[in-house]
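Revision sheet: structure tokens.
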Amino acid sequence: MKETAVKEMTLADLPVGSTATIVKILPEMRGRKKFADVGLVVGSELLIEAHAPLGGLIRVKILETSMALHKDDAANIIIEKAPEK
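Predicted:
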């Protein structure tokens, strides 16, 4: 039986308006402590509010805080997308 690799979805892949739960933060992410201080930790639910026009930043809402992340940082956050309502 042939196994196929399933690509994990990252925060950078999530479209605007989607919600997700963080399942893993890769060790390559810079500033892990800084992001943890504002609630960006495993188990947190978040909402994608916007993508910058040139694609460099992503605005997310975590708890009651909106913050911008670089797309490179968002690519190191593995998420599980919430089911569509």
